[in-house]
Amino acid sequence: MEGGSDSSIQVLRESTADKENVSFEPPAKKFKVTEVHSDCKHKLEDRLSGILCCAVCLDLPKTCYQCTNGHLMCAGCFNHLLADARIKDETATCPNCRCEINRCVCIRNLAVEKAVSELPSDCAFCNSKLPRYQLEYHQKELCQERPCSCRYSRIGCHWEGPYHEVAEHESNCAHPKKSGEEIMSALEAIDAQRQEEHKLYSDIFSLLSFEKITFNDLQLKPFRTDDFITRLYYETTRFTAFNQQWVIRAKINSDHKNPTHTINRSLSYQLVAKTKLTAPMVMHFLALSGPFGGIKMKSKVYNFEFTEEASETEYLDLPIDSAECNKLLASKTINFRLVMFQVTK
């Protein structure tokens, strides 16, 4: 009996030892848990990118607006939606929930902007992953693969390549060893560009020496025609300059029959004399952004001789790009400054 009990105790111990060995977690399972954790982390970034993206272009917004229901739009798409609605004479709506959007009800979401700035993004040149707030500086100053041109491009060298190859190229570039006659064509092109810029500034400074100068800060307000196909126009209230009454009119995409069919928007304007002129008046004028404009506008001087028969100019281009045009159309009114110079004969 004692021998049988000893054998049963030994079997019990062996079975207990086997159970204890089974309860241990194998190393392979630990590695699997680690891999799942890293996958979740990677998917979290992708999920955040999908949640925080613009509802229109599906890109992550640098400047972010939201509708009353919280749907996000980048600044460019937000302005484009408002501009489209202005041209079509419709109410601008959110592309997700169709609630009304405008500059009064939509606000910026700074939390989303800060979150997006922390998300990683690939460098366009070296594919390095960096937080978005560091990406612009990296691509301009630090990236060794960023595109650069030769320092002798001003004298005709057309080489372009990555930054880390610039030093080697410049040490072997043949353009510094060329004669003055050989680089004259490149210098003439540079001189032509400089002369065009210099002419603009010299014209403006010469106009500032005129005896009769005035400027007015104006507002262009939208209105529509009563034609079968209504068109959007802008017009200012009457203003006084040189003892005459004037207005400014503007229209969108004067070279397109239907401005809604193109994403490239442009504004053109004309100066109109509202009082009857008894004698010809030669006017030089230019439109500027002014203190309340808030847009990037280049300077361009126009001139016209107003007579009793010719009381309005042709429609002239307002020197702004398409993005700035959308920004103007998204506003209720367009603010700008008109500077006028009268040429006395």
Sketch the major β-sheet.
Answer: 9 strands, antiparallel
What's the shape? flat
Strand content: 15-25%
Mean pLDDT: 83
Query: How widely separated are the two ends?
Result: 139 Å
Question: How is this structure best described in words?
Answer:
The structure is a single chain. With 345 residues, this protein is an alpha+beta fold. Helix content is 36%, strand content 23%. It contains eight helices and 16 strands. The chain has helices at 2-23, 27-52, 75-88, 110-118, 132-142, 166-172, 184-208, 322-330; strands at residues 64-66, 72-74, 107-108, 120-122, 129-131, 147-149, 160-162, 212-224, 232-235, 239-241, 244-252, 267-273, 281-288, 302-306, 316-317, 334-343. Strands 8, 9, 10, 11, 12, 13, 14, 15 and 16 form a nine-stranded antiparallel beta sheet that branches. A three-stranded antiparallel beta sheet has the order 2-1-3. Helix 3 packs across helix 8. It starts with a helix and ends with a strand.
